[in-house]
Amino acid sequence: MAASPAPSPETEKEQPQRPVGPGPVRLGLSGKLLLLTVLFVMLAEVLIYVPSIATFRLNWLNDRLAAAHTAALVLDAAPSGMVPESLARQILASVGAHGVAMKMGHQRRLLAVSDMPPHVNHEIDMRDMPWHRAIADAFVTLLCSDDDAMRVVGPAPMGGDFLEIVMDEKPLRQAMIRFSTNILLLSLLISGITAMLVYLALHYLLVRPMRRITANMMAFRADPENSSRIISVSKRRDEIGLAETELASMQADLSSMLQQKSRLAALGLAVSKINHDLRNLLTSASLFSEGLTMVPDPRVQRFAPKLMRALERAIAFCESTLSYGRAQEPPPDREETALEPIVAEVRDTLELADDRIGWITAIERDLMVDADPDQLLRILLNLARNAVQALETRAPNDPSRDQVRITGRREGAVVVVEVSDTGPGFPAKAREHLFKPFQSSARTGGTGLGLVIAGELVRAHGGEIGLVEGTIGATFQFTIPDRAVDLEAHRPARARA
């Protein structure tokens, strides 16, 4: 038979992948629990049965020795030869023995005898019977044949050394079998009742909650963005209740995260559609604005350069719109930049009127920042716009009450800038998500991305940004450290000098 050709890589790719998962469940958790309960109860019954059967055998033999003790008293009290043979047989039959003998001193006296067996198979000394030997002898008796005979030795009356009887093992074996059967039936009954009670208790305490949690996890996996699939927490205070609470918290976080990612994906798709046309429109507006530089009007000559710079910056922003979420912001092109002109440009961009919102700056004279000018402008513009939007919620505005304040100072090799407002501030819940996209817009007018962008640009400069506690309104402080001096780069220049 010719060997079949090996499948090609293309064929393997076309074949659908079978889902890998657990096989069919043959025995559920409830069935395993019931089976283990029955097994453990039966094991406990076996451990009880072993000493019980040994004790039953010892009691049975002690009863026969007690009967032989009474018979010995009767036979010994009668004059020698005065006990009729028929009475002796009746006495031996009541004891269940073939013969009864008693040793006193050096004399061994046969009190009665009838139909003695040809030989004795087992000898049992009841005067010294350790527990392990009693257990072993009990199982030996269960396994012996009905024709075996045994010699049982026990304490003798009237100061004798010992009393011995010879009897068949069949009655003892049959009694032990009946006892074992009763124990087995009782064990099965107890095992069934105990297993059912334990099963029902554990089923309601463990199995049903685990099934509920498992079913909820499967339903949540099918649609994790559906918040209605989050498990409802019960009122239990044990480990199951704790597991439900933690699962509900994890599902809520996961659902929120997936909804946020879906929103970001939808936003990226929408932006990608308008990015091309918007960039073309801005480019056309930039070309048209170049013609304004030829107009001799002083006001046009004053605002035309600002308009050109704003359009160029808008085109650059449009080209990098999709960088957020797909890649990080480009690394800053740092240079020594004066902070005060950047702050003035932020105010002009926001077009603030002095009669509406107050604008206060407190910047050290000739303060220079080692930063990317465009990115520094974006940081201040986002923070200042958020402040203005917060103040506009209290319209009509009063410049003596509604103010935006920007301060800047140098602390060693670090420049510290603060942007504050006298608005309503952030609620406590919003403070936990200030620098997360779409979650920090607790104030009317916010988009939820301004702080995210500002934080990313500040961290790109190696600085830190955060909300200052204990201030009126909201105050954001960010730092931009100077770059470390590269001594190796300056060493050749010093050598040439």
The arrangement of helices and strands along the chain is HHHEEEHEEHHHHEHEEHEEHHEEH
Shape: rod-shaped
Strand content: 5-15%
The pLDDT mean sits at 78
DSSP summary: helix tally: 13
Structural class: alpha+beta
What is the number of beta strands?
12
Report on the biggest sheet: 5 strands, mixed
The spatial strand order of the largest sheet comes to: 2-1-5-4-3
The amount of helix comes to 40-55%
Low confidence ranges: 1-23
**Radius of gyration, rounded?**
50 Å
Molecular structure report:
54% of the residues lie in helices and 14% in strands. It has helices at residues 9-14, 29-77, 85-95, 131-143, 170-222, 239-290, 298-319, 323-326, 339-350, 373-392, 428-431, 450-460, 487-496; strands at residues 99-104, 107-113, 122-125, 149-154, 162-168, 335-338, 358-363, 368-371, 403-411, 414-421, 465-467, 474-481. Helix 9 (339-350) crosses helix 10 (373-392) and helix 10 runs antiparallel to helix 12 (450-460). It contains 13 helices and 12 strands. It is of the alpha+beta class and 497 residues long. A 5-stranded mixed beta sheet has the order 2-1-5-4-3. A 5-stranded mixed beta sheet has the order 7-9-10-12-11. Strands 6-8 form a two-stranded antiparallel sheet. A hairpin with a 6-residue loop joins strand 11 (465-467) and strand 12 (474-481).
